Predict the 3D structure of the following.
Amino acid sequence: MTNRRRFLAVPYIVWMAVFVIAPIVLIAVYAFASRDGAFTLSNFSAMGTYLSVFSRSFLLAIISTVVCLILGYPLAVIFAHETSRMQKIMIMLIMLPMWMNFLLRTYAWMSILESNGLLNRALAFLHIPPLNIINTPAAVIIGMVYNFLPFMVLPIYSVVVKIDRSLVEAAQDLGGSPAAVFRRVTFPLSLPGVLSGITMVFVPAVSTFVISQLLGGGKEMLLGDLIEMQFLGTAYNPQLGSAISLVMMIVVMIFMYFMNKFGEGEDKAVLM
Amino acid sequence: MAKELIRLSGCTMAFDGEVVLNNIELSINDKEFLTLLGPSGCGKTTTLRIIGGFQKPTSGDVFFDGVRINDVPPHKRSVNTVFQKYALFTHLDVFENVAFGLRMLKPALSKGEISARVLEMLEIVSLKGFERREVISLSGGQQQRVAIARALVLRPKVLLLDEPLGALDLRLRKDMQNELKRIQQAMDITFIYVTHDQEEALAMSDTVVVMDGGVIQQIGTPEDIYNEPKNAFVADFIGESNIVDGIMKQDGVVEIFGREFKCLDAGFEPNEPVDVVIRPEDVDIVATKDGMLTGTVTNVTFKGMQYDIIVDFKGFKWLIQTTDISPAGAKIGIHIEPDGIHIMKKSDYSGMFGDYSSYSAEYDDLEDASLEPEEETAGDYDE
């Protein structure tokens, strides 16, 4: 029995080895290699130059994640309290843009935020001075929030919608005002959804490069852009690119470890 | 003297035009153990939810201690609820579940006070030492006790219990019945209990309210309900009943199957058609020549304490409970004392119940299966 099960797992193990483990090992090997293949730590010692890129990437990703959370949480809770018919429609509307091409969506934001874009023309029409948003960090954040918001809403929604209505009634029954019920029951029980929402927004946000290129005008270089440059761009240096990727991965892992530590014990709520 | 604590006056409840409670008039006394009893969808849970404040009646008023409370939200009522599936907070341990309501109090209680009251309550429900346990690690019976402690720690004037024993197995259910009665007496408060289990209702209650189709069928003590059912529905729902057509000849005399029987009931029109209830245990088996009626035994089931036998009287089958065995096919006579015959006015339920023609040994099981704890969710959650 056990042997048979092991046998069934072989294709997956091979798959994992070839497409997950091997690339990571390759990146690690590259990261510790010089251009001629010798072992070196110079890729990492060069990293200090890019400290500003690191901090900017993480800062923008954190801001985007927080904005997504502030917008997404109430949205998810509102969804969860609608009738099931309405819920389906609302989820559909949230997902619909995701089925449109990612680049197209981001280009659309370019034409909205441009100096002569839709937004500024609308402002001019209302006799309000134009806003200079394109090619600023704000534009990058808008792009990230727009693209990643569904990844925040959906996990929170799917947890909140499963919270037993009688738990809320029990809390009311025990004297909980609406605010207290939310703070002590609904919110703690929704934390697993919040945590996976944060993960699903933060990780792509920290490594994106298209959004910053198109909406940040290349002025706001992020980690994704930096890495892309090392592999495809003028500054061809896969060894450095690998080293940056590796460091980014480790930082994200540390970040996630503390996130999950913070939420420990809360995941039991979804087991019910 | 018992004092009235809660009154429902002309309460009607409709969801999407469907009436689930029809003009309920109910008065509940202080320190009383009152049970709302009825089959699925009879409106008992809705009645409880109206008292708890989770639903507002479509029309009619709810009074608490003489004050109209229709618009008072649940968290401002001195009523607490034990929910059907306990609704414990899984993200909190036993102590915090019980302390939940205390932490909501204003002005805030001191830590020591909260701790003392929680521990006292856990002791009352026999859960001492379980403070730091996770609620999901507890058995059904223990979770039940946490739910009761959580509701009682606020010292409410009324505890509402919505089929609290529905999820427990039979033995545990019996134990908890005694336990609940004991807790009610120890706390000296009103319990309003919802169940579809008539045995539970009879065993625990001071007052039983039998409901069907959103209408109160009868209110009375367990003895009243059992001995003097108002109509065929109540007679059939509470215990086993043979219900036959009769004609009231005069006070104290009723005609059944063309024969006159003595009874204790009076106050009917001469020759008024009535429903006659004869409980299976009130029928004595005698020799055919001494019998008031004679019939043929068609089925015998051993029930431990007694035999349930089905006897055919001219095509109408009765259930009789006896300790003497009469084999299937035997001709027997029966004798009924006047106090074993109960006369009821004709009602909409006449002719629907009380015939054991379709009786079989599996009958009981089938009936149990159809009486799963109800979930009256229709429109519950629109706020």
In short: Chain B touches chain A at residues 52-54, 73-76, 79-81, 83-85, 87-91, 100-101, 103-105, 134, 136, 150-151, 154, 380-381 (CB under 8 Å).
